[in-house]
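Input (structure):
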């Protein structure tokens, strides 16, 4: 699978609207989990593998390559870390995570109580 690039066809958009390219990237297995984990600081490949538990080394390598090529993470002396763009993206996603946990998920709890 090629790396989603704004302006080129991606899943859900023949024109490659930037938001659709981003959602294509973030929708790939473990992409958001890696970003989420790296927000707390740099991690080695091994640390990321432990965090992601069920991820294969090949998939982790692929995700890291994609996130690097999309300028969201970088390789440092301490392992992998978020770039400025990666931090900014996380800070946009964090409120969505809170909303999903506190609002959306609760709507399902209410369904289960009926």
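Output (sequence):
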């Amino acid at each position: 699978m090629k790396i989603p690039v704004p302006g080129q066809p991606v899943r859900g958009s023949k024109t490659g609207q930037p938001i659709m390219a981003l959602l294509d990237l973030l929708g790939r297995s473990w992409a958001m989990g890696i970003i989420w984990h790296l927000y707390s600081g740099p991690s080695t490949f091994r640390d990321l593998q432990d965090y992601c538990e069920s991820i294969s080394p090949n998939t982790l390598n692929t995700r890291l390559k994609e996130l690097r090529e999309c300028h969201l993470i970088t390789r440092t002396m301490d392992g992998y870390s978020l770039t400025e763009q990666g931090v900014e993206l996380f800070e946009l996603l964090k409120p969505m995570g809170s909303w999903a946990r506190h609002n959306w998920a609760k709507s399902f709890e209410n369904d289960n109580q009926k």
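Notes: The longest strand covers residues 73-76. The beta strands are 73-76, 79-82.
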